[in-house]
Amino acid sequence: MQFKKFTGDPKKWQSFWDSFSSAVHANKALKNVDKVDKFNYLKSLLEGAALSAITGLALTDPNYANAVDILKERFGTNSSSSVLTWKLL
Question: Where do the domains of the chain lie?
Answer without folding.
Answer: 33-88
